């Protein structure tokens, strides 16, 4: 069963394996075979430099500057209920009290350290060359990549929060001026004794979102 992984062993996935996964994921379907996805794998010193800047930015309260909105604001009631439930359940699982501001900030700050992953994929598409469907094409590609990771016992966590500082992404990712960054995907071998990784989210029952018409 796939689920988000937010703690990693630190073992590096060799570049030839990463390339094989990316090539397999690129067999994903896209409208008119347009293949609008761009993918950057950041690792080594380049990732450490970004991580340091990101962590400082978060700790200093640098204003978040998302370049595209992910969700309706406010969320529709049913979605809001699930989002609130997720937040509460995850904090409870980690033993963090609602009033514990310091621990909660530390918890949020994990996002800006990419959960300590030694390798992070950044998914993007060309600025100004997209419609709603282009996001869908990129999403299908992303899920194909997640499946490739899963097939090799690797774990990952999709991150929108990591899109908060696009200026820092462009500072550390060469030739990215014309990219719209969509999501980050820290990945690696899952740390088995991690409290974060032992958390499992719920799903709606089948009848709430699926029906057969005949
Ligand atoms: C588009 C998208 C953005 C997400 N952003 C974050 C994020 O910034 N931080 C995080 O910890 N998890 C993030 N997640 C992970 C979701 O919280 C997670 O997929 C959801 O709660 C279901 O849990 P599961 O993946 O373990 O099944 C994101 C997932 C998606 C699909």
Describe the protein's architecture and organization:
The chain has 214 residues and is an alpha+beta fold. It has a single domain (15-208), classed as NADH Oxidase (3-Layer(aba) Sandwich), CATH 3.40.109. It has 6 helices and 4 strands; from the N terminus they run αβαααβαβαβ. It has helices spanning 15-25, 44-59, 77-93, 101-109, 132-151, 166-172, and strands at 38-43, 119-126, 155-156, 179-188. Strands 1-2-4-3 form a 4-stranded antiparallel beta sheet. Helix 1 crosses helix 5. The longest helix is centred in the middle third of the chain and has 20 residues, at 132-151. The protein is globular and about 50 Å long. It starts with 14 loop residues before the first helix and ends in a 26-residue tail after the last strand. The model has no long low-confidence stretch (mean pLDDT 98). Flavin mononucleotide binds at residues 3-4, 86, 111, 157-161, 183, 201. Residues 3-4, 86, 111, 157-161, 183, 201 line the site of flavin mononucleotide.
């Amino acid at each position: 069963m796939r689920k988000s992984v937010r703690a990693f062993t630190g073992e590096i996935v060799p570049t030839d394996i990463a390339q094989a996964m990316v090539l397999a994921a690129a067999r994903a379907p896209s409208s008119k075979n347009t293949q609008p996805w761009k993918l950057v794998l950041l690792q080594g010193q380049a990732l450490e430099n970004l991580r340091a800047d990101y962590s400082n930015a978060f700790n200093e309260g640098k204003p978040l500057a998302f370049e595209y909105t992910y969700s309706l604001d406010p969320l529709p009631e049913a979605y809001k209920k699930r989002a609130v439930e997720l937040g509460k359940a995850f904090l409870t699982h980690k033993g963090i009290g609602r009033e514990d501001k310091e621990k909660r900030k530390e918890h949020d700050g994990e996002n800006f350290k990419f959960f300590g992953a030694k390798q992070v994929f950044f998914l993007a598409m060309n600025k100004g060359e997209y419609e709603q469907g282009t996001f869908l094409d990129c999403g299908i590609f992303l899920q194909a990549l997640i499946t490739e990771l899963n097939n090799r016992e690797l774990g990952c966590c999709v991150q929108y929060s990591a899109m908060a500082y696009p200026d820092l992404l462009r500072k550390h990712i060469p030739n990215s001026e014309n990219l719209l960054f969509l999501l980050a995907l820290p990945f690696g071998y899952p740390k088995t004794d991690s409290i974060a990784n032992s958390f499992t989210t719920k799903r709606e029952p089948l009848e709430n979102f699926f029906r057969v018409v005949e």
